[in-house]
């Protein structure tokens, strides 16, 4: 309270700023307004000071202009922090001022109370005993720390010994060759060989599968090509058959004419040679002529060739018949002579 009164009197006498002490006691928004009177005056003074410094700097070097916005931002952050701190401090001050009435009464009672030597001595001895108890407790903790340190050192030494023993055991195990190591190495070599064989067979199998696929593809292409060729041949044969069916009546007439000519020649041969006939040859000729003439697939050229062949066969047969007739006549003459 005295502090607030002295500050208010100082600001009133020196800066001519009137402040309400009751609002300051409350430590709320009104107290902040009262304090802003002083802070605004101080801020304006600082601002005028900075402006005067900037003017002097401009006079010294007018070409150099600097405006550091980061410093302004920092100043703004600092002002906000101070405002929040002022608010918290004002709230605590308000609470303490609220307790000042009771505290003042207790303080006045204590000051007015006369102190007795026995009570003072008892309080001092009690505090001394408390301090001694704390000292004993700290000493016990120190003793415990020493014992704990000894225990830890013993454990560390034990662990070191175990570590050395394990290291020695490890060295001995590393130096000694196991009994199954030879068999292990042999099996490892066999496994490596089997793996190489497996890889070789796998590569061969992969290659053969690729070759088989290529071969199957080629065979499929060939099959498709042959099917296409057969289809083309079938179409060509169908077209030829159709053409042959168109020209078939002419072939039938030609075959009939050839048969009539052959029949006439046979009749003439029978008239000339009534004594002896060769039915087998004649039948063969007829069969050949019939077979040659009944072929529906033969073209005009083939029919002409068959007719020529038939004529040649007829000439040969006529020669044979003449020879037979001569032989028969000779036999008849021999018989007459015998008689």
Task: Write the SSE topology.
Blueprint: H1 2-14, H2 21-26, H3 29-60, H4 69-98, H5 100-112, H6 117-175, H7 181-272, H8 279-293, H9 300-338
Task: Summarize, please.
This protein is an all-alpha fold and 339 residues long. The protein has 9 helices and no strands.
Shape: elongated
Report the biggest beta sheet as strand number plus sense, adding barrel if it closes.
none
The total strand number stands at 0
Low-pLDDT stretches: 62-66, 270-308, 330-339
The chain-level structural class is mainly alpha
Helix content: over 70%
Number of helices: 9
Overview of the molecule:
By secondary structure, this protein is mostly helical. Among the domains are: about 90 residues, no CATH class; about 40 residues; about 90 residues, no CATH class. The chain is about 90% helix and about 0% strand. It contains nine helices and no strands. It is elongated and about 160 Å long. The termini are far apart. The C terminus is likely disordered. One of its GO terms (cellular component) is intraciliary transport particle B. It is found in: Cell projection, Cilium. Belongs to the CLUAP1 family.
Identify the notable features of this structure and list them briefly.
elongated, disordered C terminus
